[in-house]
Amino acid sequence: MSAVADGGGRVLVIAGCGYLGTALARQALGRGWRVLGICQSEETVARLGLIGIEAVAADFTDRESLARVAGEVPVDASVVHCAAGGKGGGVEAYRAVYLEGMRRLREAFPGARRMLYTSSTSVYAGIDGGEVTEESAAEPERETGRLLRQTEDETLGAGGAVVRLAGIYGPGRSVLLLNFLNGLAAIDVRTEPPATPDGRWVNQIHRDDAAAAVLHLLEHPDGGVFHGGLYNVCDRTPLLQREIYERLAARFGRELPPEAVPETGRKRGWTHKRVSSARLRGTGWEPRYASWFDALDGDPELVPSILAKVG
Which of 15, 32, 242, 245 is most solvent-facing, going by the fewest CB within 10 Å? Predict the structure, then answer.
């Protein structure tokens, strides 16, 4: 941690160096930032050290733990909260990691140059297939979603920025492709209004594009773009399930998945919407992969890494 404290220049503190946070750290290092990751375990610290990312084990939901970290970095460091609530995390896990975690970060780094919170497009509860923008209603039905929204509001109110991330995929992670290859996929067909004969809309963003979007906002020279800014982060091409699976079936020589009644009881609910990233693109950001299929063709690690996981 002393290297970060003594290094000068731009310093970025990343609370949660998991799938997205690690990619963000790598990109930031490549652009000349000094990076410090806050992790939950010494094992994660060691793993990050092997790939050249400096990290410290601390509980960022705990004041004393964070105070020790904050004392070792410049007061004007930028801070990103991109930790996850964990698989199967319920209401209390969401409250601790997202809401209380962000509060503790703001307390520990009151002089942060820029502070950003990574939320989710799951806060949009739309089911009519229409387009949603940052101006659309974001009124989640579930308590977990309402905690995300409360964290957003507090972050924006304190002058920070919020990004709402679509479904993240990339090397080693694509639930959509893995389920298809394992024969677990289905086309969510509703017969009652609003009917979905071709399944629901799927909105996604490649991990590296998501990290680049966060870094783009942190580096943007116009403070008005950042402070109090709310942005959707997704690619340019929402896709209907039927189109996705028809193209995958042709690509891999598999059968088209069956139709099924949507599982509306999922933790984040069932939605049918097209998420727009026009506001973010208006600031100068563009995804490298305009669609999920562009990434299947253009990211050499993506498909092989998922094929390796097929049961």
Answer: 32
- Longest CA span, the chain: 62
Beta bridge partners of 232: 164
Do the strands 161-165 and 78-81 form a parallel or antiparallel pair, or are they unpaired? unpaired
- Contact between 163 and 217 (Cβ < 8 Å): yes
Scanning 167-311, the segments in alpha helix (DSSP H) are 175-181, 207-219, 223-226, 241-252, 278-281, 292-298, 302-307
Q: Is 52 exposed, middle or buried (0-12, 13-18, 19+ CB in 10 A)?
A: exposed
Which pLDDT score, from 0 to 100, does residue 250 have?
98
Residue type, position 26, single letter: R
What is the spatial distance between Cα 234 and Cα 131, in angstroms, rounded to a whole number?
Answer: 13
Low-confidence ranges of the chain (pLDDT < 70): 1-9, 86-89, 264-269
pLDDT score, position 265: 60
Q: In sequence order, which residues have a C-beta less than 8 Å from that of residue 86 and are 6 or more positions away?
A: 93, 97
> In 3D, which of 210, 180, 199 has the Cα closest to residue 289?
210
Q: What is the model's pLDDT at position 262?
A: 87
CB atoms within 10 A of CB 84: 18
Instruction: Name the β-bridge partners of 218.
Output: none
Q: Rounded to two decimals, what is the model's pTM?
A: 0.95
Q: At how many degrees (to 10) do helices 207-219 and 19-30 cross?
A: 50
List pLDDT tens digits, range 247-298: 999 999 999 999 999 876 655 567 899 999 999 999 999 999 999 999 999 9
